[in-house]
Amino acid sequence: MTIEITPASLAHVTKGRGGSFVTIEDDVLDIAKQIQEVHPEFELQYNEEGEYFRVVQATPGYRKHTVTTALEADTRLVNRLKALVADPEANRQSQVENDRRVEANQDHRFSEAVGEASERLAFAIRSELKKGRPGNVYIPPDMYQQNKFYMKGK
Asked: Do 78 and 101 lie in a common domain?
């Protein structure tokens, strides 16, 4: 079961970074009360600077931590929290898979962006080392002693 609710984007969170959160205890749709019914330690908060909602878990004796964020506070948020509480292991697995996909995508984009430049740099370094003059490339003295580099005339 997929619950479609838009989480706060990084832009919203960044914009609201310096702002304070207002805890919402009572609202027109009773969303805050419904969230407390899902789990008594959950609190609904709103960031005026970032213009987004977050649900935090306020466990006594521990620091509050964010459970989820949303741009709107409605029944979809309540349903999302119910799904999180009902099957936390499935949610964790889903998050791990999502993190892997994001990391793989970032690695691919980085490789694409840096790939050609790194190949040119490696070629230039190899060329200078084969000529026997490393130029502005710093090679530690212990590397020379280990004969790891081919140095003409040395």
From this structure: no
Query: Measured between alpha carbons, how far is 79 from 3 in angstroms, rounded to an integer?
Result: 7
Average pLDDT for consecutive 10-residue bins of the chain (154 residues)? 74 84 87 92 92 92 90 91 84 82 87 80 79 65 58 48
Domain that holds residue 68: 10-86
Distance CA 98, CA 104 (A): 10
- pTM of structure: 0.58
Q: Could you tell me which residues come within 8 angstroms of residue 45 by beta carbon, excluding any fewer than 6 positions away?
A: 21, 22, 23, 24, 53, 54, 55, 56
Domain check: are 77 and 105 in the same one? no
